[in-house]
Design a protein that fits this description.
single chain, Rossmann fold, about 300 residues, 13 strands, 6-stranded mixed beta sheet, about 30% strand
């Protein structure tokens, strides 16, 4: 396995005149479960399709596991992709799905697939169209895992599932990553699900990467400050403001800093992953509002 699972420099993809992804520069070390989060239309699916070789870049370049996405049989064999709505063929039985997987994938592990189906309590003769949404998601995940990938890409795999099915899916995914040691790139708008499983976070907003880093470091360096009203330019230079809100008497900042915070005027608290994601989304929205106002002036 290469040291980086995905590298992109100035990566962009355009549909007509609209950029779906632009100026994307990231380096994701191998061995991580990567959460890709952002609002609808932010470019998440575009990035995943570029990584899996389903799309070609308009600008920049991307390598996955040291090679060009979909660049030949050997490269294709390293990556599994599970699309939105965990697609399976309604008219095929589970056994027929496994036979199809074995025919299409040179690294196919039939024993792994059958063992997982058995542990899920599913009968091989069941047709996919008769399964529940959670069961279909588990079958799609099984197909992706049986390919024995070095990278598993999942695009909103649990968006349509109920909370119990989402938890079971995520638990199965985590058990598989521990057992078989592969990298995961998982897109979702359900940050609470990502918080339980991801150790690397990418936030995409308006087709641009806002942050891409290990979650442990992100959570260790971001704080919420609450205290008497103060302009952001009065904060120490080492405190980088991500988002700010004010009332007549009080200011609340989300900041990033590597240094201790000594000002006794501030009540200081940590952020969870959802707080952090929302702060970066708020920052982008505030920057956009300021740019609009400057143009109007």
């Amino acid at each position: 396995m290469t040291s980086s699972v995905l590298e992109a420099q100035g990566l962009g993809r355009k549909y007509g005149k609209r950029w779906a992804l632009r100026e994307c520069t990231i380096d994701i070390p191998a061995g991580h479960v990567v959460g890709l989060v952002g609002p609808n239309g932010a470019g998440k699916t575009t990035l995943l399709k570029l990584a899996s070789g389903q799309l070609e870049p308009t600008a920049g370049n991307i390598t996955v596991l040291g090679g060009r996405p979909a660049g030949g049989t050997a490269q294709l064999a390293k990556v599994s992709f599970v699309a939105q709505d965990t697609p399976v063929y309604a008219g095929l039985s589970i056994a027929e799905h496994l036979k199809l997987g074995a025919r299409l994938n040179p690294r196919w592990d039939d024993a792994r697939a059958r063992d997982r189906i058995e542990r899920l309590g599913l009968a091989l003769g069941h047709r996919a169209g008769k399964l529940s949404g959670g069961q279909r998601a588990q079958v799609a995940l099984t197909l992706g895992l049986a390919k024995r990938p070095e990278l598993l890409i999942l695009d909103e795999p649990v968006a349509s599932l109920d909370p119990l099915a989402r938890r079971e899916f995520m638990q199965g995914l985590m058990e598989a990553t521990v057992e078989h040691e592969f990298s995961v790139l998982l897109s979702s708008h359900l940050v609470s699900d990502l918080e339980r499983v991801c150790d690397f976070l990418i936030v995409l907003v308006d087709s641009r990467v806002q942050v891409a880093e290990e979650t442990e470091k992100l959570l260790a360096t971001h704080y919420r400050l609450t205290g008497p009203r103060r302009d952001s330019d009065r904060l120490p230079s080492g405190q980088h403001v991500i988002s700010a809100s004010h009332t007549d008497r009080q200011s609340t900042f989300v900041i990033r800093t590597d240094a201790p915070i000594h000002d006794p005027a501030w009540a200081v608290s940590r952020l969870n992953l959802e707080d952090l994601v929302l702060a970066y989304m708020d920052k982008h929205a505030a920057d956009k509002r300021r740019a609009t106002l400057e143009v109007q002036r």
